[in-house]
Amino acid sequence: MGVIWFDITTHDIITHMNNYIDIIKQELLLRNYSRKTISAYCLAIKDFLLFFNQEISTLGANNMKQYLLHLHDKGYSPQTISLKANAINFLYTQIIKKDGYIKIRHPKRSKKLPLVLSRNEITLLLQQTPNPKHKLMIEIAYSSGLRVSEVVNLKVADLDLDELTVLVRQAKGNKDRLTVLSEKLVPRLRNFLFDRDGQYYVFESNRGGKLSIESLQKTFQRCLQKSQIAKPATFHSLRHSFATHLLENGVDIRYVQKLLGHQNIRTTQLYTQVTNPALKNIKSPL
């Protein structure tokens, strides 16, 4: 079945929310958006339409502001509100193509510094992870700067143990990237992956197949608690630590940007605020 197109002269015949969701999903797929973004946009539009429960053609700019204020009052983060604003903008500018529509301005994002584990804390965390498989998952995330989704999607063929590289396929933004692999992990990875076909996942569940993201996050939290590290770290903190420690080692920020897969170097520059040696060398006057 082909894609059904609606323009501004016919959109008012659409009365069911699912029609909008289906059209948005088709359009995003054609534009090669990631499945994660497609899911987030569809959920955002569904929530927006359910909030008012009326024909979308009757909604104006004040309604949209009312919805975003509702999200703010509910305690949603600026990042989440920005995503929902993007979804609403996409609906009105790309699907409905409403005349005179002025894009909703994004709320100002909070500038929180990334939570980074020190080298000693990384060592302590690994010492409190006796399970060889769990330890390797944490080590490869830290040593290669991987997101949790990238660890669970990693396949045997993506690891080049001779060249010490990891190929991250279809990462954020549907882009492949190459990152580094620690030489220290190679002997254990060879044993762990012995006689495994290249299309197998590196870290499979006990039942076979891909490990779930939730399972890996829970594993990390258990190990964090055992290590008695007070910081409210998450699995993503391993990626933050990778970037920060590379910069502390003197690696050029442009290389760190490539390894992380950041499109904009300003995203990578955030880590320079965490690892500012000049600032850390200043002594308090007290």
Automatic annotation (TrEMBL):
Q: Which InterPro entries match?
A: CB (IPR044068), DNA_brk_join_enz (IPR011010), Integrase-like_cat_sf (IPR013762), Integrase_catalytic (IPR002104), Integrase_recombinase_N (IPR010998), Integrase_SAM-like_N (IPR004107), Tyrosine_recombinase_XerCD (IPR050090)
Query: Which SUPFAM superfamilies does this UniProt record tie to the protein?
Result: DNA breaking-rejoining enzymes (SSF56349)
- Keyword annotations of the record: DNA integration, DNA recombination, DNA-binding
Tell me what this protein is called.
Integrase
Q: List the Gene Ontology MF annotations in alphabetical order.
A: DNA binding
PANTHER family attached to this UniProt entry: PHAGE INTEGRASE-RELATED, PROPHAGE INTEGRASE INTD-RELATED
Report any one BP term from Gene Ontology.
DNA integration
Entry-linked NCBIfam families: recomb_XerA_Arch
Does this entry carry the keyword DNA-binding? Answer: yes
> A single Pfam family, by name?
Phage_int_SAM_4
Annotated Core-binding (CB) domain residues: 8-96
Give start and end of each Tyr recombinase domain. Answer: 112-284
Keyword DNA-binding assigned to the entry: answer is yes
Superkingdom of this protein's organism: Bacteria
What's the family? Belongs to the 'phage' integrase family.
